Amino acid sequence: MTIRVILVDDHPVVRAGLRSVIDAPDHIEVIGEAGSGEEALAAVDELTPDVVLCDLRLGAGIDGIEVTKRLNARPTKPAVLILTTFDNDAEIVAALNAGAAGYLLKDINPEDISTAIEKASRGETYLPPEISSKVVAAMRNPGPKLTRRERDVVKLLATGASNAQIAQELFVTEATVKSHLVNVFTKLGVDSRSRAIRVAEDRGLV
């Protein structure tokens, strides 16, 4: 039985490289590609793959974690494997909590990608040893919690509020808001407002 796969990455060169690797085994076939999260959802509707191999960060629009979450909410759903260069503990846990069947780094051996696809198609989870150890460590040590005011800032961030609007809402200065954001980014291991919102929500911190 042929395993049908869709590739999701915002870089065409990366998709081309992955296609050459994944199409090598006779029992795995790349049936489609997508350059964004939105395109991925449409491609799944059209092509009904068994497995979606998805990058974590997809430029503008929804990211790989959101793609995973939306696909897993469907009655009929493909398995989703995250393939990325980022090994941040919080993002690994967030991806798995969203329903990912595996989390792979892009320096993985081609044979291991095939193994991950095979396992995912059977409803199994595939995590390389280095990722498994990070997951175990993250479960044992969930990391620092956000203060009440930091949670307030993240909640307002999620509404699309600017620093000035957050400052006005919380009756503090913009400098104070920026200080809270620096603390939030550091605690969550993220580098953007959107990632802070996503990780905080996925970890149940807000």
UniProtKB/TrEMBL annotation:
PANTHER family: TRANSCRIPTIONAL REGULATORY PROTEIN NARL-RELATED, TWO-COMPONENT RESPONSE REGULATOR
GO process annotations (BP): phosphorelay signal transduction system; regulation of DNA-templated transcription
Origin superkingdom: Bacteria
Domain HTH luxR-type: 139-204
Pfam family, one: GerE
MF terms in GO: DNA binding
InterPro entries found in the cross-reference section: CheY-like_superfamily, NreC/VraR/RcsB-like_REC, Sig_transdc_resp-reg_C-effctor, Sig_transdc_resp-reg_receiver, Tscrpt_reg_LuxR_C, WalR-like
Organism of this sequence: Brevibacterium sandarakinum
CDD domains, per the entry: LuxR_C_like, REC_NarL-like
Protein's name according to its UniProt entry: DNA-binding response regulator, NarL/FixJ family, contains REC and HTH domains
Response regulatory domain span: 4-121
Residues bearing PTM 4-aspartylphosphate: D55
UniProt keyword terms in alphabetical order: DNA-binding, Phosphoprotein, Transcription, Transcription regulation
